[in-house]
Amino acid sequence: MKIGDYFNSLDIIPYLASTTKEEVLAELTAKLVTHHDTIDRDEVLRVLLEREMLGSTGIGGGIAIPHAKLQYRGDPIVVFGRSTTGIAYDALDGKPVNLVFLLLASEHALDLYLKLLARISRLLKDRAFRGRLMDVAGAAALYDTIREQDNRL
Prior knowledge:
The chain is α/β, with parallel strands linked by helices. The protein is 44% helix and 21% strand.
C-alpha cells in the first residue's frame, strides 16, 4: 500500500495561504472537494474540527496530519499542503506547521485508514525528506518527491 495510490498532483497545494489551523483545514477541504465532488465540504470541516478538539494533529517537527472518518463509500483521500511561512496549529511542540497531510477515509475502512495514517507518519520521520519537501517548487515536484520517498519504504 502506497500513499500515492490515494492522491495525485491535483490534490496538492504547494503554497498554502493559511496562517491558522482553522484556515488550513478549510483550504485543504476546499481543494479536496474540487476533485472529490461527492464529499460534503461542511461535513468534512465539522469532523476535522471535532477531531482537533480531541487533541491537535500537529505532531511536531513542522508536521500536521489532520484525519477523520466519514460516512461514504469509496477509497481514502489524501490531500497535501505546504506552507513556506508556517501555520499556527497548536502543534505538540508549540512550533508552526509547514507540512500538512489531510487524510479522510470511510468509516468502513478502519484498517486501511490506520495503515495510511501510520505510513504518512513514517514517511515524515525522515528529516531529509521533510527538507526536500520544503525545497522543491510546484505541485508536480512535490508529488514526485512524495512518490519517490513512498517507494523507498
